[in-house]
Amino acid sequence: MVADEKALRDLLANGGIDGSTERERLDALERELDQCWDLLRQRRALLEAGEDPGTARVRPSSTIEGYRS
């Protein structure tokens, strides 16, 4: 996923991507990556708190996007 994101960003920066479809692909990939990072953070926090990291759940991207400042 990270490699896909980098490739899309490189294409976008070099003008190799045109059209809203490509931008949508990049946006969707960014949302998926944000969800993965959020899940990892949840698991680490649960582990550090002595709880079961297996109870962490993927949160909706709308919830995670609200965390950004």
UniProtKB/TrEMBL annotation:
Alphabetical list of InterPro entries matching this protein: Uncharacterised_Rv0898c (IPR020311)
Biased composition, class Polar residues, residue ranges: 60-69
Region annotation (Disordered) ranges: 50-69
Protein name: DUF2630 family protein
